[in-house]
Amino acid sequence: MAEPALESYSEFIDSLREVETLLAARPTAPLGSGSTASHTQERELVNAITRACVVMLVAHFEGFVKAALTELIDEICQAKPPARRLPEGLLELHTRERLQEIFGTEGPDRIHRTRRLFTTYAQLWDADRAVNPQLLSAKLLTRQFTNAKPEILEAVFSLLDVNDVITEADSHVNAAILARGDGATSLKVNVKLTEIVERRNKIAHGDRAEKPTPFEVESYMVFVKDLAQCISFIVERRIQHCCSLR
């Protein structure tokens, strides 16, 4: 299978080297050598490294998703396709933001914003009109992605008319596991992703009981890479659809 062409995916793969480098810095001396005190220090260092790896891995993945969504909006703004090619969820998101601005103001400012809604943002709903890049905001879309939990991922991609992102990810990730033939068992993406994000959250909030093993960190990296590849292919398809001028 060809690798995704998204720049955000390539940057994400590069970022994984940082996690790999950190994990490789852990002590690897076999237990039984050295004093009890040195064993304790080594164990604490390994725990600190693996905990940092999980936090860093999830942060890089969340950054990748936001970068991929930004890449989608950038491509749309460059192509300027007719508005009918854009997902209605994306159009509604931008319109809703304007409505919230209106109801958050009073007096002349509210009148100005109301007029702008109809004279400017109404263009987004004119099916045959080329999209005005100034009306689309990548920041607005990426703000919807508050964390990497499956339900948040589903909600964000539903705005892009992708209503089965986790189902597709299940198929993609398990096909990758089968293709590698490394003895790994099949998994449920929503379960695995929830596990990783919740462990990151506990570690980030100071829960010292969370002590992922080096093996777990390595398996998390493989999983997240497979998931990022699937998301990249989905975003590429959305770009191809949205940027069509027909």
Portion of residues in beta strands equals under 5%
By DSSP, the count of extended strands is 0
- The number of helical runs is 9
Topology order in helix (H) and strand (E) letters: HHHHHHHHH
Biggest β-sheet description: none
Helix share of residues? 55-70%
**CA radius of gyration:** 22 Å
Distance between the termini: 29 Å
Shape: elongated
Unreliable sequence segments: none
Overall mean pLDDT: 93
What would you note in describing this structure?
It is a single chain. This protein is mainly α. Helices cover 67% and strands 0% of the residues. It has nine helices and no strands. The chain has helices at 7-24, 36-79, 88-103, 107-119, 138-142, 150-158, 165-180, 189-204, 214-242. The longest helix has 44 residues, at 36-79. It is elongated, with a radius of gyration of 22 Å. 23% of the residues are buried. The mean pLDDT is 93.
Question: How is this fold's topology laid out?
Answer:
Blueprint: H1 7-24, H2 36-79, H3 88-103, H4 107-119, H5 138-142, H6 150-158, H7 165-180, H8 189-204, H9 214-242
Helix pairs in contact: 1-2, 1-9, 2-8, 2-9, 3-4, 7-9, 8-9
Keyword list:
0% strand, 246 residues, mainly alpha
In short:
The protein has 246 residues and is mainly α. It has 9 helices and no strands. Helix content is 67%, strand content 0%.
